[in-house]
Amino acid sequence: MGGKSSSRPAPPSPLLSKPWREINWNDKQGTLQHVNAIRPKTEGQVIRILLHGLVGAGKSSFINSVKSVLQERMCLPALVANSFGESCTKKHTTHKFNNGNQDTFYHFVINDTMGLSNDCSRSTRNNRVRDIEKALKGHVSEGYTFNPECRISMDDPFVNLKPSANDKVHVLVFVIDANKFTPMIEKAVETFQDIREEAIRLNIPQVVLLTKIDEFCPESQQDVKNVYKIKTLKEKMKEVSARVGIPVNCIFPVKNYSEEMDLNSDTDALILSALKHILQLGNDHLNNHYA
Predict the structure, then answer these.
(1) Residue (of 202, 218, 227) closest to 286 by Cα position
(2) How is the chain split into domains, by residue range?
């Protein structure tokens, strides 16, 4: 007598049937033109983006990835954190991005900050909050060396006592490693929240870049166009939103370039999509407060 079939139902798919957020994957040049068209009303004004996050979260890698996408070749203008968990960013440096040739630039700049250790002391976290507050206000000049043991003094030669609209930050970007957010200690999250409160007080918009999604979910490593179909990634974005306080529509998953020798059009599209929305927020802030 034949036995009953022992077939089991297929496991549920890790992917949604349709993406819950749309991206134009096939028009890189059109998106580049859109990015170039986002410019402040005031001649000579730039949109200043400030990155903040833990050591190794991907801040410098995002800067390198943006430059690579805009230059359409691999570029490494910013050093990245090493395997020992030490931040390579020591000085306040402004990264500009060439637009076509060496003499013209896009209408935005990106400032990196020294990476914060997940288990740093309370005094170090407080120093970081105060330093970021001064940077948001435009008081931290080019070349200032970050010191986790003490906050910048208003008597420091690298303090700009009379910042212009060009010196001030117009978008604050929290860079968070998707793989390391859940175990992040609450004190580190509270530091993000304290910095966010300073930005709110200054009416500066804030967003999150959720990095290393290819390591977090194999579905995006197989095909980055799956990004907005992956159920676990959507849940991770909701978790970040709940703990940090940034709404989900201001959280952008990205895959930075790290090991690749050549660009990938889908990776480019994801980076450009995040950059476009960051610039739109910064430009709105500038035009609403400084026009």
Answers:
(1) 202
(2) 43-208+220-289
Over pLDDT 90: what percentage of the chain? Answer: 61
Tell me how far apart the alpha carbons of residues 216 and 40 are, in angstroms, rounded to a whole number: 36
How many Cβ atoms from other residues are within 10 Å of residue 275's Cβ?
28
CA-CA distance, 89 to 45, in Å (whole number)? 25
For residues 287 and 165, what is the distance between their CA atoms, to the nearest angstrom?
11
Task: Specify which residues 253 forms β-bridges with.
Answer: 210
Beta bridge partners of 65: none
Structural contact between residues 195 and 131, judged by C-beta atoms closer than 8 angstroms: no
Global pTM reads 0.91
- Say which DSSP state 173 is in: E
Rounded to 5°, the CA angle 267-89-213 comes to 25
Class of domain 43-208+220-289: alpha beta
Percent of the chain with pLDDT over 70: 92
Q: Which helix (H) or strand (E) holds 120?
A: none
Distance, in Å, from the CA atom of 44 to the CA atom of 111, rounded to the nearest integer, reads: 18
Phi and psi (nearest 5°) for 199? -65, -40
The model's pLDDT over 65-118, given as tens digits with 9 standing for 90+, comes to 999 999 989 887 655 554 445 556 678 889 999 887 777 899 999 999 888 888
Q: How far apart are the first and last CA of the chain?
A: 85
Rounded Cα–Cα distance for residues 182 and 271 (Å): 23
Place of tokens 């990476």: 115
